[in-house]
Write a structure and sequence with these properties.
- The complex is a heterodimer.
- By secondary structure, chain A is of the alpha/beta class.
- Chain A contains six helices and twelve strands.
- Chain A has two domains: 164 residues, Glutaconate Coenzyme A-transferase (3-Layer(aba) Sandwich); 33 residues, no CATH class.
- In chain A, strands 1, 2, 3, 4, 5, 9, 10, 11 and 12 form a nine-stranded mixed sheet that branches. Chain A has a three-stranded antiparallel sheet with strand order 6-8-7.
- By secondary structure, chain B is an alpha/beta fold.
- Chain B has a single domain, classed as Glutaconate Coenzyme A-transferase.
- Chain B has a ten-stranded mixed sheet with strand order 4-3-2-1-5-8-12-13-14-15, with helices on both faces. In chain B, strands 7-6-11 form a three-stranded mixed sheet, with no helix packed on it. Chain B has a two-stranded antiparallel ribbon with strand order 9-10.
- The chains are: A alpha/beta, B alpha/beta.
Chain lengths: 214, 219
């Protein structure tokens, strides 16, 4: 396991990178890495995440700093800045139903080309997508998503990089851990190997590339 | 009784012991305040929690325990937490017995629009499309009218949330179902007549033969 400072973690990410960022309205988002991206002004990012949080929180900081060029998210309703930048043409926003978004990421991480879902059938979400009818039910073909980087937050990481998450901070984090070329984890606590029992590991260590040091 | 309370109390009577229920933001959240005595219901927050409890006392708040609206809630004994793939697997897979959601428009066939007003409000659909497509029963909690205009319309003008029709609409005036795909008045609120409801509804409304008063008794 390679440990890096928040500065070193952010320095791995070039302008124009695609980044999956864990969190649901900022809960479960690695704030220290986000803060360093803002400080370095790493720009033209494609952000794949559940939402763009709130102004001043998590991904909201990246939006505020004008660093996001494209956002693939399920919800921007609590961040008026995202909506303003979308209307002004500064951010290209692709809105994806939340369950479809997480499945597209899961597909990307699990070696699938995509998934079939009934969500969005007969709505604007269907536009331009192939459909399949199976046992009389119509499904949309939703393609897999991957990213250059996953920026994740965990509750515990052991020295090898095994992870657990706490309460509702798990959300997209363990799914994204499978779907990016480079996985960077900021854990609230780094604990000796063995503290997390095998049955309690939620993300196995080999999926993690970098742990952010305290 | 204010409109929100009428709606929440009536919907609470749809709860059955052992149900897994997802409540949307706004009026639907209030339904949790009126769970009938002796009934145990699991409330799901789609950010990854079953067993969602009331908002936490200030000293007991935890920054990593929120509901889908971002409120710092509690988790009740027997609660479980999970990732978003599991959470939406529960929703799409038909494991959620009932969802209660807000609405902008419901049409005469029961189709719902509740996620965007193009040009005015583009928040994103979040989990709404999955919930309407996947929950076993979809109940809409909304005011009957907005700015004097009926929210129950002949055909939705706003973008649909799903092709699948909802099961029940509860407003401060009425309970409306969709047997055979037709909006049908099932119940009227206290002090509200069938004529009042029909007059306040833009969609063509059938009236059930056994239309009855809404029962709002606390249980």
């Amino acid at each position: 396991m390679i440990t890096v400072s928040p500065e070193q973690a952010a320095a791995l990410i070039p302008d124009g990178a695609s980044v999956m960022i864990g969190g649901f309205m900022g809960v479960g988002t690695p704030e220290r890495v986000v803060d360093e991206l803002v400080r370095r002004r790493t720009g033209s990012l494609t952000v794949i995440a559940n939402d763009t949080a709130l102004p001043g929180v998590g991904i909201g900081k990246l939006v505020h700093a004008g660093l996001v060029r494209r956002a693939i998210v399920s919800h921007i309703g609590l961040n008026p800045e995202t909506q303003q930048q979308m209307i002004a043409g500064k951010i290209d926003v692709e809105l994806v139903p939340q369950g479809t978004l997480v499945e597209r990421i899961r597909a990307g991480g699990y070696g699938l080309g995509g998934v079939l879902t009934g969500t969005g059938v007969g709505t604007v979400v269907e536009e331009g997508k192939p459909t399949l009818t199976i046992d009389g039910k119509r499904f949309l073909v939703e393609v897999a998503l991957r990213a250059d980087f996953a920026l994740l937050s965990a509750f515990l990481a052991d020295y090898l990089g095994n992870l657990t998450y706490a309460l509702t901070a798990r959300n997209f984090n363990p799914v994204m851990a499978t779907a990016a070329d480079t996985v960077i984890v900021d854990a609230d606590n780094i604990v000796p190997t063995g503290v997390i029992a095998p049955d309690h590991v939620m993300t196995p260590a080999p999926l993690v590339d970098y742990l952010v040091a305290h | 009784m204010n409109p929100e309370t009428v709606i929440a109390r009536r919907i609470a009577q749809e709860l059955r012991d052992g149900m897994l229920v997802n409540l949307g933001i706004g009026i639907p959240t209030l339904v949790a305040n009126y769970v009938p005595a002796g009934i145990h219901v699991f409330f799901q927050s789609e950010n990854g929690l079953i067993g969602t409890g009331p908002v936490a006392e200030p000293a007991m708040r935890h920054r990593l325990l929120t509901d889908a609206g971002g409120r710092t809630v509690t988790a009740l004994p027997g609660a479980s937490t999970f990732d978003s793939a599991t959470s939406f697997g529960l929703i799409r897979g038909g494991h959620v017995d009932m969802t209660v959601l807000g609405g902008l428009e419901v049409d005469a066939a029961g189709r719902l629009a509740n996620w965007t007003i193009p040009g005015k409000m583009v928040p994103g659909m979040g989990g709404a499309m999955d919930l309407v497509a996947g929950a076993r029963r979809v109940v809409i909690a909304m005011q009957h009218t907005a700015k004097g205009r009926s929210k129950i319309v002949p055909t939705c003008t706003l973008p649909l949330t799903a092709a699948r029709p909802v099961d029940l609409v509860v407003t401060e005036l009425a309970v409306i179902g969709f047997p055979q795909g037709r909006a049908t008045l099932l119940e009227t609120a206290p002090g509200v007549s069938v004529t009042d409801v029909v007059a306040a509804t833009a969609a063509e409304l059938s009236v059930a033969a056994d239309v009855r008063p809404m029962d709002l008794a606390e249980r």
